[in-house]
Design brief:
single chain; alpha/beta; Rossmann fold; 2 domains; seven-stranded parallel beta sheet; 16 helices
């Protein structure tokens, strides 16, 4: 083993998504005298966090498999990366591609970690097949991690062996900020007395944006003055934007926020909506709690994320029930000091300082086996 423990994180991309933000939160707090993070992405283009990764002393290696799905070309690229670099640990976050390349990796890198971040797969035929195949390597004796118990059972099975590796955020940076709130009200032309609903997440089916718009239409029918702010990128964004554009009431109330650094958006929101069909462990709910933002989440989401009394879980069977609850909350439950919520997250295992210490100790332990 080299002087530093060198870790290669295998990911689809290093965009602005949930597990990518988790990895960067850890990387920023990492003891970089003892550990080195590198990233293998299955995209040929420069990724969102690439320049920051390099500024922190890491490297990004590109494999184009996700762009062109040329297996033997990808094998050649991976062979070059692994042969020309030394890695002590392979930390694999891309389950869809694990089954194709894991056997090749494990012959060349001693310590292999499989890390489950999801609690449900794509329900298309392709998604089901890929999901079934991707779970196969987890039956072998690798080091298994999961961001939550539900994500562990999903990927490794109910009797599977895995450790819980807490997701994390930099709690202080999400603390409620009145100046941020006022600035964003002005920037997006929102009256200060207007109820602001928000959602941050990729525009994919599992995030259930259709249901969010159904809720918005219910609120419009009830004559509620509100704005719904959506932030994210993804394949379904155009479809959602077209529905908004072609619906008079939605066009009046829905705002698409610029993606990027989202920290201030939580100070803008009065209520966060997260009616996801499934989540492994949503960082969004940690972020919203750190900002003291009230949150409504689907009852499919793990309760392990609850650190304050500002989260409620609802079934995703009726947008009307969500709209009714939003009205009740806005009338009775938003008069509290939002700054007090930040402490609960900061003192938990989900703060980036504490979560980074956990992962450092885990790396040291498996390297000593």
């Amino acid at each position: 083993m080299s002087e530093k423990i060198k870790v290669l994180h295998v990911v689809v991309d290093m965009g602005h998504g949930g597990y990518e933000n988790y990895l960067m939160n850890v990387f920023r707090k990492l003891d970089r005298d003892k550990f080195e993070f590198n990233f293998l992405v299955f995209k040929g283009h420069e990724c969102y966090f690439e320049k920051e990764i390099e500024s922190l002393g890491g490297k990004v290696f590109h494999c184009t498999f996700s762009d062109d799905f040329r297996y033997f070309k990808a094998r050649k690229q991976l062979k070059k990366i692994v042969n020309e670099n030394h890695f002590d640990i392979l930390h694999c976050h891309t389950h869809y591609y694990s089954f194709l390349f894991l056997k090749y990796y494990s012959k060349r890198i001693t310590n292999v970690i499989l890390h489950s971040h999801n609690s449900r797969s794509d329900k298309s035929l392709k998604g089901r097949i890929v999901s079934l195949l991707s779970k196969y390597p987890s039956r072998k004796k690798y080091n298994n991690l999961a961001c939550s118990d539900i994500a562990g059972k999903y990927f490794f099975g109910r009797k599977g062996r895995y450790d819980i590796c807490p997701n994390c955020i930099d709690s202080e940076t999400f603390a409620y900020n009145e100046k941020r709130r006022d600035s964003l009200h002005e920037r997006y032309g929102i009256d200060k007395n207007t109820l602001v609903l928000g959602h941050i997440g990729r525009f994919t089916a599992i995030k259930n944006h259709k249901f969010i718009l159904d809720i918005a239409e219910q609120l419009s029918d009830k004559g509620i003055e509100y704005k719904l702010c959506l932030c994210g990128v993804g394949a379904l964004k155009d479809k959602i934007a077209n529905r908004v554009e072609n619906t008079v009431e939605l066009k009046k109330h829905v705002i698409f926020l610029e993606p990027g650094d989202v920290k201030g958006y939580y100070s803008l929101f009065d209520i966060l909506l997260l009616p996801s069909l499934a989540e492994g462990f949503p960082l969004t709910l940690l972020e919203s709690q750190a900002a003291g933002c009230y949150s409504l989440a689907s009852d499919t989401i793990t309760k392990e994320v609850v650190l304050t009394d500002k989260i409620e879980y609802l079934p995703i069977s009726s947008p009307q029930s969500w709209a009714d609850r939003i009205i009740e909350i806005s009338n009775n439950s938003l008069n509290y000091n939002r700054l007090t919520c930040n402490k609960a997250v900061k003192e938990s295992q989900y703060d980036s300082i504490n979560a980074t210490e956990f992962l450092e100790n885990y790396y040291l332990r498996i390297c000593k086996k």
